[in-house]
């Protein structure tokens, strides 16, 4: 029996196929979104807890007043989108590492995608359609700061 040896410096893996390297871009996204999320989260905490009256001041009226400003709407939506996509990408990586079988792996990744998409949609709708004082509602159903 004779064994053949590969020539020196022969790559261990075959050359990569042409196209987009999604794993590389997912890896880059995790690093960039992590840094941006740190800034967004600490800005969020600073404005809500330090600049204001602390955690005791956070209530329905506080959120209503904050979301009346488009800047804070976009801040919170950016935080929501980045956090959900970051978490979904992390879960996808775990599924790729630990799930056995291609069909099971595909089903789990589809479930993660559906959950992330639904939560992004619902969260974005909540932020941009939030109305603390809806017109035409009975006064007993409105918060105390709304004019009846």
From TrEMBL:
Gene3D superfamilies per the UniProt record, alphabetical: Fumarate reductase/succinate dehydrogenase, transmembrane subunit
A single GO molecular function term of this UniProt record: metal ion binding
Superkingdom in the source lineage: Bacteria
Main location: membrane
InterPro entries from the UniProt entry: SQR/QFR_C/D (IPR034804), SuccDH_FuR_B_TM-su (IPR000701)
GO cellular component terms listed in the entry, alphabetical order: membrane
Residue intervals passing through the bilayer: 28-51, 71-89, 110-130
Pfam name, any one: Sdh_cyt
Keywords from the named record: Heme, Iron, Membrane, Metal-binding, Transmembrane, Transmembrane helix
Subcellular location(s) per record: Membrane
Name of the protein this chain belongs to: Succinate dehydrogenase subunit D
